[in-house]
Amino acid sequence: MSTAKTAHPIDLEFTAPIEKNGAFATFLTVPNSAEYFGTRRAIKVSGTVDGHPFDATLMPSGSGPHWMPMRAAMCKQIGKAEAGVEVTVRLQQRLS
């Protein structure tokens, strides 16, 4: 028997540069995420990147903030994939 998870509305917006270091092919650092969410565990979220919708799992970095993986399809959709290029993210729902 499966249990459905309830989405909780959130409103967190930030601008961050695209990063690449091998942990994920392409990712963003979510500033102050451990404090905002009250955990350093993985967190499923949905929202927008430069106005385009996405779902992702924020991964704990081990040092505080979470990393948000940027899939190749999302990078193509927003037309940005180079390290250092800034994107605007709005997290709208916490799914876990």
TrEMBL record:
Pfam families documented for this protein: DUF1905
Record's protein name: DUF1905 domain-containing protein
Gene source species: Antrihabitans stalagmiti
Lineage, opening ranks: Bacteria, Bacillati, Actinomycetota, Actinomycetes, Mycobacteriales
